[in-house]
Amino acid sequence: MPDFDAMKDKVAGKVKEAAGKVTNNEKLEAKGKAQNLKGQAEAKLDAAKKDAAAKADDVKEKAAEKFNDAVDHVQHDD
What we know:
Shape: rod-shaped
Helix content: over 70%
Order of helices and strands: HH
């Protein structure tokens, strides 16, 4: 689920952008676009962090399995 702040920035940015277009206020429209892009970037960063954490957990789990297999192998060779 996307971060609340990222979602808030995306929605608020879209609202500002639309308001800027309707009122012909280029500055407000530009601020809205920028805020929307900020929200999109935050959401992508959050997703990337979660993906990296999940992959790190997978690597840790596989390393632990290999270690345990190696220990079992050594114990059975004795």
